[in-house]
Amino acid sequence: MADLTDSADSRDALITANLQRWFGLPSLRPLQREAIDAALDGRDSLVVLPTGGGKSLCYQLPAMIRDRLVLVVSPLIALMQDQVDGLRLLGVPAAAAHGNLSEAARAELRTMAKNGTLRLLFVAPERLFQDDFLRWIVTRDLAGIAIDEAHCISQWGHDFRPEYRRLSELRERLPGVAFHAFTATATPRVRDDIAAQLRLQDPVTLVGTFDRPELVYRVLPRHDLEAQVEEAIKRHPDAATIVYCIARKETEALAAALQRRGIAAEAYHAGLSAELRTQRSADFRAERLNVVVATVAFGMGIDRSDVRLVVHAGMPKSLEAYQQETGRAGRDGLPAECLLLYSAADAAKWRSLMQRGGKEGEGDSGALDAQLQLLQQMQRFAGSVRCRHRAISEYFGQAYEDPNCGACDVCLDELEEVPDGQVIAQKILSAVVRTGQRFGANYVIDVLRGSRGEKIIARGHHELPTFGLCRDLPAARLGNYIDQLVDAGLLVRSDGEYPTLSLGAQSKSVLQGEHRAVLRMPKQALVARGSRRRDDSSRREGGVTRRETTELNAAEKELFQALRGLRRAIATELAVPPYVVFSDATLEELSLLRPASPATFLAVRGVGPKKLESFGERFLATIKSHCQEHGLPVDSVLAGEVLVPETSEGPEQSIAPPRPGNREAAAALFRRGVSIEDAAASLGRALSTTAQYLADWISEERPTSIAPWISASDEARVRSALLQSEDGRLKPIFEALQGEVPYELIRLVKAQLQNSSLGTDPPRA
Ligand code: ADP
Ligand code: ZN
User: Which domains does the chain have, with CATH numbers?
Assistant: First the structure.
């Protein structure tokens, strides 16, 4: 692999070239480069990136760069099939090996394997360990093994799969092949477990930022489930929504209730017929169905990237699960909401489910204890009134700097102090004391609300002075107040099957009125709020996010909808989910930039040569006719440059949107090597506009040299700066060269460099 270790420069160029050629992407996201380096160096690695962080690229790109086969272990067929469909659209030879393959797919797989063109092969662990498969795979020349959803190997994760444990057996069978583990969810404990179980050798360990700034988290006490869910859905009209319930029955009841309220929702759980499940997940993926009410069975295989709302109708069993499930929102990097409707009763429900499961299962008490601990931490999160982004980050072992995240119920100030909180707290504490600190929350609530239950009467608790003192408060609200008191340390909840409440260190001073207890409740009427969004360039800028500068206007939104319609049509024709055609992020960028030519189309994030070839014509036609109809200018300035506003000398604003007619005239001049100044004069356009024409022309026509427009030494300087740049943004390069080379010329070299890194070899189909 001398070519890959030669020099940093040539590796940079290889990565850039393959990234653009196969994936149509201009730059890598944080940690992708390090993960790719590990794969190219043949080193074991453990990569922990949040959902949507871009893990797949970390094993897909190395397969293309090394031109060799990468085996991908993945837990679910649906998940594999979507990835394979997506890769095929990119022109990447990929296949999945599983029992449900058609005869044609099987034959194709055999052919690709035989002639050595196969680059990515997906397989579930069960299949992998079948004798014939194992015998065959060890004879292959593998560039590496990627283990997706690697937390499945750990009982400390949220999705333990015993089959994953066998993966370490592969180490003996495939000596010298590097293992690359990927997961979205890993506490340090799970991380260590993965490394140990897979026997990773001196792995490159990469842990990304868990925070998802584009998600707004809200945790509300559940007082009227149906109304609360309806309200949330109405905050996101026509958007993809997943509502998670704990039990199967609840999904059906809630879906029916939503239907009665005029929302087209369907239930999904493992108890439905296979036919119905396939139907509903296909409908959801094809955007025929937007609201799914489901158990967690609806999950891993669902990769629709435009989910704008994830509701938890009940509390999940761990923060790992919560993070994973909410992680399905906003995978396209656009803002999304995660609403948890929580009641203390949920924890009790889980506890009994887990205990039953523990008894029915192997009786692995270690695993049960682990589950109960995870549950407790989840409960603490739900009951607390601390910044949600901070709480999640810290749970996953990461510091959170921002004092106000601007994207959670706490920081958005959606909670207000309960006016008589002190008095209510005193009533609750007093009820706990009077009943002898021996009962759980539900019992205390019953006493406070004046329930004449058998046990209460038998114990004489109906005669306590606290009996019925909170008759006017709903049980769910009281439960939430108790959670808040536990969170504040004013009550202590015991561990175990039947947790009881007792007083905390400061409770006495609250009862005596020396210390003030604060209780909060949600304000009324929430509105959908834009959170921050994930953005590859603005993140690094640290300043302005794209949201403020790229909000689509009405006509652009219409264009976006038109493009979505086209995407849906193409997806139906190809029998693939729409998001594998283009992501919402790409459609938004298309609506914003409105490319009119193949060259400008190709400059949009998520468009590579293969997709240009397959879909370019139809998308360009839709854009063109929409723009004509609505009087929208086409070929708006390029992303990356305008989206993050430059400082005052920023050159981009001065560029008028080029008109297609001028381009041909300009091209004729450039072909003759006419200088920018002369061409500008001849065309009657500004210098900057003409330079932009030239850059586009260079991308389109790929001249062998750009010598007529830039001195050899300037070209060399810019080229070297570009090769060292992480993201190819112009401003840092301009600054690195002390402003001695104007933006226009930097752009020319960039266009030229992109050509050369695309190589002379046209993209293969
Ligand atoms: P994960 O597996 O970590 O949940 P994916 O691999 O599915 O995430 O990637 C999520 C989305 O991000 C996909 O739409 C993918 O195309 C996109 N993506 C990945 N890497 C990049 C990148 N470097 N630049 C822009 N988009 C990217
Ligand atoms: Zn916050």
Answer: 8-207 (3.40.50.300), 215-414 (3.40.50.300), 417-522 (1.10.10.10), 552-755 (1.10.150.80)
